[in-house]
Amino acid sequence: MYIIDIIYKVPTTLIDQHMEAHIAFLEKHYHSGNFIASGKKEPRTGGIILAIAENKKIIEQIMAQDPFYINQLADWNIIEFKPTKSIKAFTALLEGCA
User: Fold this and answer.
1) Over residues 10-19, mean pLDDT
2) Could you give the CA distance from residue 27 to residue 3 in angstroms, rounded to a whole number?
3) Is residue 4 classed as helix, strand or coil in its secondary structure?
4) Three-class SS of residue 12?
5) Cα distance between residue 48 and residue 60, in whole Å
């Protein structure tokens, strides 16, 4: 599992101009099964995506397609995360994604 930390580099007024394309990007990768959750950070300085892939390289390739990244509006950090303890519902979700 990967935690993708998106960091805005520009004011949110510019982010909002590209939000529709970003949402289409998210939907594509929810449909592919790579994204399992996403949302804005508070305060609104970026966002977080929880993702699953065989390796970090795949996540890097996916994130290079993000309109926020393509248009130099945001950067991202990818954190590999291996849950060792969770509630049953989360464990079942992860097993369903594997």
Assistant:
1) 97
2) 17
3) strand
4) helix
5) 15
CA dihedral for 65, 69, 74, 76, sign (positive or negative):
positive
Q: Residue 56: which pLDDT band, with cuts at 50, 70 and 90?
A: very high
Q: Which two tokens stand for residue 27?
A: 């939907």
Question: Parallel, antiparallel, or unpaired for β 35-40 and 2-8?
Answer: unpaired
DSSP for 19-82 reads HHHHHHHHHHHHHHT-EEEEEE-SSSSEEEEEE--SSHHHHHHHHTT-HHHHTTSEEEEEEE--
| Cα angle: 21, vertex 4, 12; to 5 degrees | 45
Please, are residues 78 and 62 in contact by the beta-carbon 8 Å criterion?
no
Model confidence pLDDT, tens digit, residues 58-88? 999 999 999 999 999 999 999 999 888 888 7
User: 17-56 burial, b if ≥16 CB within 10 A, otherwise e?
Assistant: ebeeebeebeeebeeeebbbebeeeeeeebbebbbbbeee
Angle value at C-alpha 54, between 22 and 75, nearest 5 degrees: 35
